[in-house]
Amino acid sequence: MNTAVAMEDYMKTLHGHRVLDEINLVIERGQILGVTGRNGSGKTMLLRAMCGLIRPDKGKIMVMERELNRQRPFPDSVGLVLENIRFWKNMPGFQTLQTLAAIRNKIGKAEIRETLERVGLDPQDQRAVAKYSLGMKQRLAIAQAVMEKPALILLDEPTNALDQEGVELFRRLIIEEKTRGATIILASHIKEDIEVLCDRVIHMEEGRIADG
């Protein structure tokens, strides 16, 4: 089958507020899906559901034809940029990615160097991440999401803090990831990112898919 993500009657309530309400959504493999909506509309929660960081009160979610549940809480192959991502402050960027890559041991130093270069960071830069600008930290966040070439890439406002060069590198990278077969979900309030990159767009309001 060609389905990357399938959500059926998915509902989630947090602190008495329904953050996702009767979500029914099918995303085909290799597609770039744009998700728009105001702050608090459910964009981030939708991505959190797709990577298993929240579980439904009702309904279900399938990722790459396998249900996320207590026995399999997370997708097998996913890269993620969510809000307020944090890294070890005293490590350089290369060492940061090397430490993260050691968890799954799927890639080596060459792939890490290549990924840093793809997002416009210098693999030889020995500055600690604490000394990075906000834009550099965002580039590093994007790098960690794509370095292992995951099947599913979830991006929440990924061009925040990026300068124009960073935005252009990001857009080129996303097209490259789609070309290799990745499915990409892009939540953004930046209209041009959505228009330039996405094959399909959904709009969210109050935890529901209002359009798309």
| Percent of sequence in beta strands | 25-35%
How many DSSP-defined strands? 10
The helix tally amounts to 6
The portion of residues assigned to helices is 25-40%
Computed CA radius of gyration, to the nearest angstrom: 17 Å
SS-based class:
alpha/beta
- N-to-C SSE series? EEEHEEEHHHEHEHEE
Shape: globular
* Main beta sheet strand tally, sense and closure: 6 strands, mixed
Termini separation (Å)? 22 Å
Main sheet strand line-up: 6-7-8-3-9-10
Question: What's the pLDDT, averaged over the residues?
Answer: 95
Which spans have pLDDT < 50 for at least 5 consecutive residues?
none
Structure write-up:
The protein has 212 residues and is α/β, with parallel strands linked by helices. The protein is 31% helix and 29% strand. It has six helices and ten strands. A six-stranded mixed beta sheet has the order 6-7-8-3-9-10, with helices on both faces. Strand 1 and strand 2 (17-28) form a beta hairpin. Helix 2 (93-104) crosses helix 3 (109-118) and helix 3 crosses helix 4 (134-146). The longest helix is centred in the C-terminal third of the chain and has 16 residues, at 164-179. The protein is globular.
